[in-house]
Amino acid sequence: MGGKKEEVFSIDSSAVIAGLASGLGSFCKEEHQNYYKCKHNNSDPEGCLPEAIDARRCNFALANLYLDPKYGCDAKFTSYVKCLRERDFSFRDCYDTRLDFESCASEKFGIEFPFAVPPRLKQYQKLKPEEKPKNN
Which UniProt keywords apply (predicted)? Predict the structure, then answer.
């Protein structure tokens, strides 16, 4: 009875949605585009309900795919989500777990992820030209 309890996340949690975000643009692109086009052209809050349901259904399908143990990315996705939760959604602090998960998902599912800029490089890019180290 004293064994370690496996943590289970609700697919609808903020951390899971944040973990899904980088892959949604590739996996659910069409569904999200249809929803945003509808919202742009329709002021009725219920006018785009079918498109919203399609986009949400795609989000859940992607989460279930990531969490399916038969593909081998479930532990990596869970680690990434756990990192986001524990570090108040600091993507910088979770960079390594993100890359580990995304490389698995890219290989297994062919999902294209946006390039993840290393946190140190982002800091370097924010420097003014006169603050950047000189190459001697």
Answer: Disulfide bond, Electron transport, Mitochondrion, Repeat, Respiratory chain, Transport
